[in-house]
């Protein structure tokens, strides 16, 4: 573990903003919410934030991105798949968002090799920061994602006048090369451990009433509990916001766009979500998840059971974004999980 | 810009890179269905398994998944049978030989002919569900000696909706396969001298060893429940049944999520499923 004075860290970021070939982005306070956005200087950073509206997923899998271009060349079409290598330096990622990115890496790189994602991810540098504040809808401590020892190039912990820096990768170490850093003292190492083990868990007002390891079983047992799903989704507007703000949601749709007046165009993919009414529809007016309760249920099953079945991860990292952004106030996974647990408990008695 | 017709992948191995498919022949049936014969660059074979699908791109319009209807035993261009029901399919119906489309794939898990080696097979096709099954039916006919007794049951709404009429006649008249057909009804302006009634009314007439025959089913969503009930009543074990299911697919690779059936992705775990795998998946609707 290294230690860097805060002014030195800010100078390092300023230097990267002016010299790194990549955009340097980080957490800023936009007046109403915290957001990941371009940094003009390190002074823009708000590393004591609670949660950002969108996760840094938006840089690795943008809300809309071109994946293919085509043009008509004398009656024959030329197609060119696109995978932009526009990685970013991303500063200030909370541990739960790093866990989410690790889950996406497993799917998009290790398992299915999605080039548009892989190129951006492998060219990005991730600087994490241990939490100093938590949103009132977050429950990351219960999900085991409030701290992490992987998924970052560098991880900062605020120690007042200095940051303690854990180095996760060689690229992270090299990033610090030009800065004045020193080795952490035993006391500083202990302080970081104390923050991670005692201070961070205390930031959360909400918690699961059971171990997240039980979640796949609890969801499976409640699959046919339609009374619960219908009751719970009664107010759901199927707007899909919970899908869109989720750091582990990655469903998309592909659209073909013609450049008007030409014989060229492109295919782009955009975020899509299972809560949206037509998500599971096919030609011929068939919709395999026609009822809002079915869509609502699918979202939770996917988060806590299906992704676990396929990839071994619980795809809810407890950030609470879906809860705070839900227009109808029904997307709250902590509440849903706890109520499902109670249903199982009641059933067992 | 480098021509993608000479290189399947432009940047590394990018799965979203299509190749040009040249439409070499089309054939309209009396209904809203049309067969497209498509040739890949340099006469390359698609290399598909019966039941697999391709993603087809119509430049400027969109992309959609289509099951391959020709058997891999047929060399040269492959065939798709497409009903005009959406933007992409309507645009396709306006295309003609000499036009090109983009092709990605083949994708998905099809029927593995080796699984059925030496065994009896009953094919049950409803409507345009014959298109994917035809790939496997023609495979078994082309390599007839590798399989046991073959039976096909085909039902559609009305005579005008029948696909591949010449082949149906060959199947009916030939002695390599038992062929039964039905239509739900026959409008007055059409001719029909076969039986009328939904497909489940014909299934009990098939003469097969229910204990050992494999049953391969493809049809509209509403058909599966009733056909499976019928097979159950006949005593066909679930383990002998294979279904090809339809869903929407945007990526073909198990990512975009549109085709999910519970934790399964139709585009990679299917579209052909062994029935016991999807029997208890509520979203399979079987």
Automatic annotation (TrEMBL), chain A:
SUPFAM superfamilies xrefs: 4Fe-4S ferredoxins
Any one GO molecular function term: oxidoreductase activity
InterPro entries on file: 4Fe4S_Fe-S-bd, 4Fe4S_Fe_S_CS
Domain 4Fe-4S ferredoxin-type: 226-257, 306-336
PANTHER family given in the database record: ANAEROBIC SULFITE REDUCTASE SUBUNIT A
Protein name: Ferredoxin
Annotated source species: Halapricum desulfuricans
Gene field: napF
UniProtKB/TrEMBL annotation, chain B:
PANTHER family assigned to the protein according to its UniProt record, in alphabetical order: ANAEROBIC SULFITE REDUCTASE SUBUNIT B, DIHYDROOROTATE DEHYDROGENASE B (NAD(+)), ELECTRON TRANSFER SUBUNIT
Necessary cofactors: [2Fe-2S] cluster
Residues of the FAD-binding FR-type domain: 16-113
Cofactor comment text: Binds 1 [2Fe-2S] cluster per subunit.
Binding site for [2Fe-2S] cluster: 251, 256, 259, 267
One Pfam family from the record: FAD_binding_6
InterPro entries per the UniProt record, alphabetical: Cbr1-like_FAD-bd_dom, Cyt_c3_hydrogenase_gsu, Dihydroorotate_DH_Fe-S-bd, FAD-bd_FR_type, Flavoprot_Pyr_Nucl_cyt_Rdtase, FNR_nucleotide-bd, OxRdtase_FAD/NAD-bd, PyrK_electron_transfer
Record bears the keyword Cell cycle: no
Superkingdom assignment: Archaea
PROSITE patterns documented for this protein: FAD_FR
GO molecular function: 2 iron, 2 sulfur cluster binding; flavin adenine dinucleotide binding; metal ion binding; oxidoreductase activity
Keywords: 2Fe-2S, Iron, Iron-sulfur, Metal-binding
A biological process from GO: pyrimidine nucleotide biosynthetic process
Protein name: NAD(P)H-flavin reductase
Keyword Kinase tagged: no
